[in-house]
Specification:
The structure holds 3 protein chains of 3 kinds. Chain A is mainly alpha-helical. Chain A has helices spanning 19-42, 53-74, 83-86, 97-126, 129-138, 147-180, 193-220, 226-257, 262-270, 274-298, 305-331, 333-336, 358-378; strands at residues 6-7, 342-343. Chain A has one domain (6-378): Formate dehydrogenase/DMSO reductase domain (Formate dehydrogenase/DMSO reductase fold, Up-down Bundle). Chain A has a two-stranded antiparallel ribbon with strand order 1-2. By secondary structure, chain B is an all-alpha fold. Chain B folds into 3 domains: 5-49, no CATH class; 53-101, no CATH class; 104-156, no CATH class. Chain B has 7 helices and 2 strands, in the order ααααββααα. Chain C is 29% helix and 17% strand. In chain C, strand 7 and strand 8 form a beta hairpin. The N and C termini of chain C lie far apart (69 Å). The chains are: A mainly alpha, B mainly alpha, C alpha+beta. The interface between B and C is large, with 51 and 70 residues.
Chain lengths: 401, 156, 278
């Protein structure tokens, strides 16, 4: 019972869902966002996105691999986690996690395998010994790279990537549903929740790929493809605007209707969540990037490549922060007020070295990045460059449409 | 189909994993799960099997018939013995006395019901404890209430 | 990168695998159909077990000792807030009977103090376990009352709906229980309960809640809180028993439930519920 006071139900004194439950939608959001970005190339043939076609898929897989760990760290009985697949309660939103996760994992691995199949076969033929066996197993013992086989690959790939769009939407929309379907909590319970989650997921996914792509190019000493960067900036801009609009719409509706729950949510937003909501989610994380990306999108012809890249990089970093703040405000914000609707807890700050502490959260965020680096040592993450035309510092040729 | 062999293999691999899952799930399902609904039925029996800690009504009177007699005629007859004393389970195990009964003969205990509070129903007998003690010329000691009232039959 | 590797070693790799004997294909077909049939049998078996055909007559007494038949009971709980004196003995009895960890509550008592201008103060120090002290501030209280709370044993309860693993369930006699051996401790049910009656047990790391003292009511005893109440503010009834006093009150008097707009259909009824209580 804090200074903020009021009356809290006696069992409501504890914040139950902590940092790891903030991490979980954040990480799955990166999964879904990166995948949907890759689909723009694989399904909708936005060919300017070819340079990040593979990277976004592999990033998606990396984050997918570590998403369950956030949940395992949170569970009271992590060893019983397979109960979710053993006796799933079909009425529970959360029970679907195991199946949606497994199906999506299968789909993603399948797609990445198809994208890299030629490389696998080539590497199998080039290497010796154990490595050779490794690539042979990866190729499933089929070494057909004829034109017909490639056409089959392409057809299957389009179908998989096509299935992957509803798959990714389901994976993340359902995370939003987990919160949106809790009618006991007025800050969570809204049908808009899955859509808001999905939009901000796409934002975080694109932002993450922009950052990974720029860093990757820097380290491999290759050129950042201006049309690709310009295109990602455009998509990112669109989805930030959508996402922030939805986030604001939900709150404005509550406020305008003077809904019952506004008596707690209003004070919550301007008091306990003032910094993370107004400061980060709205101003620093949304308004600033919208302006920066606006410059990139609207004034493209006046920008040098370097300025464009820097603007995109900074905007992406801020957006990663914004989406994290949004998850935080939903998950923690929903537990700051008591279900009595009469009182607030002290605002919550996680410990450093506990089970749901900051240190482990950072580790879980870094592991996927390590995974991408390791993956790159086995199979190429970046598309082979077609023919390099070194135009440094000039205006972007295809940028302004 | 000639050139789709790798696709077929990959799909077969996925099917194999799915089959393995179904088989493992079958053998890992807990006993009595799903007999009455989506839960482990034996869990109900586990709840039932817990031993009560508070006694059945009349359990105290089996040994303490005198006190029970006084109590049953007074205004405190609606107050279960264990409220002022302690749960049956702290005192009796397997029909034998396991430990002495704890009592709290203090005005604090009486005050829990009879201290005047604005939220208490008006008709319920209640006093402002310190005023009531002073009015009757008593000192505020631990057992002050018992100077005038018999806890088993307070109106006497 | 070259896309069509056509060196010698690659050709060798291809030859190794590209000549399946026709017998192998036959073998795969046979195995596949056998495995398929087996899997179908398993799935149907599991589904049939889930349908519970065998279970309709089984009762908890078939599993445990004693002659309890849960099809002949349906429990309801009634709280007369006009009688409650806020002694908090129910909270203490519950904690002792059920070994409830300190700082967590399966039941608790709230105190409401409403001034003439409608300002409402609510408190529940340590859940009311040690009773209530007179308030320090001398505000003009025009309406005051105590308000006991516990699990509402809802008919359409969100907690059972949300539990991902089937560890929370509703018994045939209308009590919501937790299977502590299957609960994974995710806390979704705690978030989903509109009444705040659930918590994650700090040592067992599983969801915990009021069981209506299921081990007592199945033996014909009253729940510890009901037995401890000195003024009969808490009552338990059984709508499947003819002439049940509590069932009669619920059937004939103006009773109310908490947060009826959520349509959880609680089986815990209140007499004297007023708009301040939630």
């Amino acid at each position: 019972m804090g200074e903020h006071g009021g009356y809290l139900f006696p069992n409501d004194l504890h914040i139950l869902w902590e940092l790891m439950i903030v991490m979980y939608p954040y990480v799955t959001g990166l999964v879904a966002g990166a995948f949907i970005l890759s689909s723009l190339y694989h399904v909708f043939h936005r060919n300017e996105l070819r340079p990040i076609g593979r990277l976004s898929l592999v990033a998606s897989l990396g984050f997918l691999l570590f998403a369950p760990w956030t949940l395992l760290l949170h569970l009271g009985h992590p060893l019983r986690c397979f109960n979710v697949m053993l006796t799933p309660n079909l009425a529970s939103a959360m029970a679907m996690f195991g199946f949606i996760y497994a199906a999506y994992m299968a789909l993603l691995v399948f797609e990445i395998w198809l994208v890299h199949r030629e490389d696998i076969i080539m590497l199998a033929s080039r290497s010796r010994g154990v490595t050779r066996w490794f690539y042979k197993v990866l190729a499933l013992g089929v070494y057909d790279v004829s034109e017909e086989a490639k056409q089959v690959d392409h057809r299957v790939l389009v179908v998989l990537a096509g299935l992957g769009i509803p798959g990714a939407s389901l994976l993340h929309g359902y995370v939003g549903f987990i919160f949106g379907a809790v009618k006991a909590n007025p800050w969570w319970s809204t049908p808009l929740m899955p859509i808001i989650f999905l939009c901000s997921a796409i934002v975080s996914g694109i932002a993450m790929v922009i950052i990974l792509y720029q860093i990757g190019m820097k380290f491999s000493g290759r050129r950042i493809d201006p049309p690709c960067m310009q295109s990602m900036a455009r998509w990112l801009w669109l989805f930030v605007i959508l996402s922030v609009t939805l986030e604001l719409l939900e709150i404005m509706t509550l406020a305008y209707e003077r809904a019952e729950e506004w008596t707690v949510i209003g004070p919550l937003l301007v008091d306990q969540l003032a910094f993370t909501f107004i400061g980060i989610q709205l101003v620093l994380g949304a308004m600033v990037p919208i302006i920066l990306l606006g410059i990139v999108v609207l004034m493209s012809r006046y920008l040098t490549n370097q300025i464009r890249n820097t603007l995109c990089f900074v905007a992406s970093l801020l957006l990663l922060l914004q989406v994290f703040a949004m998850r935080w405000n939903v998950v923690i914000g929903g537990q700051i007020f008591s279900k009595s609707l009469r009182g607030f807890r002290e605002s919550h700050s996680p410990g450093l070295f506990e089970k749901e502490g900051v240190a482990l959260a950072i580790v879980l965020f870094v592991f996927p990045l390590v995974f991408i680096v390791l993956f790159n040592r086995i199979l190429p993450v970046f598309e082979p460059p077609d023919e390099e035309v070194p135009i440094e510092g000039g205006p972007c040729p295809a940028g302004g449409e | 189909m000639e050139h789709a062999k790798h696709i077929i293999r990959a799909v077969l691999l996925l099917v194999l994993i799915a089959v393995a899952f179904v088989v493992v799930r079958h053998f890992a399902l807990p006993e009595t799960f799903g007999m009455h609904g989506h839960y482990r039925f034996r869990s109900v029996a586990e709840h039932v099997a817990r031993a009560p800690f508070h006694g059945a009504p009349g359990a105290c009177a089996e040994c303490h018939d005198e006190e029970a007699e006084t109590w049953s005629g007074g205004a405190h007859r609606s107050v279960s013995c264990e409220v002022c004393h302690a749960p049956f389970g702290t005192h009796v195990e397997a029909d034998e006395q396991a430990a002495p009964m704890r009592v709290q003969p203090s005005y604090l205990l009486c005050g829990r019901c009879h201290q005047r509070l604005a939220a208490r129903p008006k008709e319920f007998p209640q006093v402002a404890l310190s005023d009531h003690v002073a009015e009757n010329g008593e000192e505020m000691t631990e057992r002050v209430c018992l100077e005038c009232h018999d806890a088993h039959n307070p109106s006497e | 990168m070259p896309t069509t590797p056509a060196n010698d070693s690659d050709a060798a790799v291809r030859q190794e695998v590209d000549s399946p004997p026709s017998t192998r294909r036959e073998f795969i077909k046979c195995t596949a159909s056998a495995v398929g049939a087996g899997v179908v049998t398993l799935v149907i078996g599991d589904l049939a077990a889930g349908a519970g055909e065998a279970g309709l007559t089984t009762t908890p007494s078939d599993v445990a000792d004693g002659g309890y038949d849960w099809t002949r009971h349906r429990y309801v709980y009634l709280i007369d807030t006009r009688k409650c004196i806020g002694c908090g003995f129910c909270v203490r009895a519950c904690a002792q009977e059920n070994d409830v960890p300190p700082g967590y509550f399966r039941t608790w008592v709230e105190r409401y103090r409403v001034s003439r201008t409608g300002e409402t103060e609510v408190d529940s120090p340590d859940g009311g376990k040690n009773g209530f002290e007179p308030p320090v501030s001398g505000r003009d209280i025009t309406k005051g009352f105590f308000f006991p709370k516990l699990c509402n044993q809802c008919t359409f309860t969100p907690c059972v709906q949300l539990c991902p693993v089937g560890a929370s369930y509703r018994t045939v006699d209308g009590v919501i229980l937790v299977d502590e051996k299957r609960c994974i401790g995710c806390g979704y049910c705690v978030q989903g309960c509109p009444y705040g009656t659930r918590f994650i047990h700090p040592e067992k790391h599983v969801a915990s809640k009021c069981t209506l003292c299921y081990h007592r009511i199945t033996r014909g005893l009253k729940p510890a809180c009901v037995q401890a109440c000195p003024v009969e503010a808490r009552m338990i009834g059984d709508t499947r028993q003819v002439g049940d006093k509590v069932a009669e009150i619920i059937a004939t008097e103006r009773v109310q439930v908490l947060q009826p707009e959520l349509l959880t259909e609680p089986n815990c009824y209140y007499l004297g519920l007023t708009r301040e209580a939630r």
